UniProtKB/TrEMBL annotation:
UniProt protein name: Integrase core domain-containing protein
Domain (Integrase core): residue spans on this chain: 1-61
One Pfam family matching this protein: rva_4
Highest taxon of the lineage: Eukaryota
Length: 115
C-alpha cells in the first residue's frame, strides 16, 4: 500500500485507519497462537501440555492455592473477598468520565464521518 501511494505513514488518519482495520485481526491471530501453544505437548515434561501442567499444579495438595488451603472454613461466603468497611473505588468521584476531543493537525474534524 505504501509503494502504490495508498498509505502515507506520516498521515495520522492513515495510521489510525490501519490500526482500526488490522488490530482485531492481529488480536485474533495472537489468541489462536496462545491456544495452540497452551495445548501443545512439551517433550521435557513427558508430553504434557502447559494447560495440563498448570491444572496438575493447582490440584496438588501441597499447593497453597489448592481448594480449602487458603483460609479456614468461612462461615458467610456472600461477601467473601470484600471489605465492607473499606473504601469503595467510587467514593470520591461522581463516576463521570470526561473524554477530551482529539485534535489532528491539518484536519477539519467536523468534516469526518464515523460509522
Amino acid at each position: 500500500m505504501e509503494q502504490t501511494g495508498l498509505l502515507d505513514l506520516d498521515n495520522p488518519i492513515h495510521m489510525f485507519v490501519l490500526h482500526w482495520v488490522f488490530l482485531q485481526r492481529i488480536n485474533y491471530a495472537l489468541h489462536e497462537w496462545m491456544d495452540s501453544f497452551n495445548n501443545h505437548p512439551l517433550s521435557t515434561e513427558h508430553n504434557w501440555t502447559p494447560n495440563q501442567l498448570w491444572i496438575n499444579g493447582m490440584l496438588r495438595e501441597d499447593n497453597p492455592l489448592a481448594i480449602g488451603g487458603l483460609d479456614d472454613d468461612p462461615h458467610d461466603t456472600r461477601f467473601y473477598g470484600e471489605d465492607l468497611d473499606g473504601p469503595t473505588p467510587f467514593e470520591d468521584s461522581d463516576n463521570c468520565v470526561i473524554v477530551s476531543p482529539v485534535h489532528i493537525p491539518g484536519i477539519n474534524t467536523e468534516e469526518l464521518v464515523f460509522q
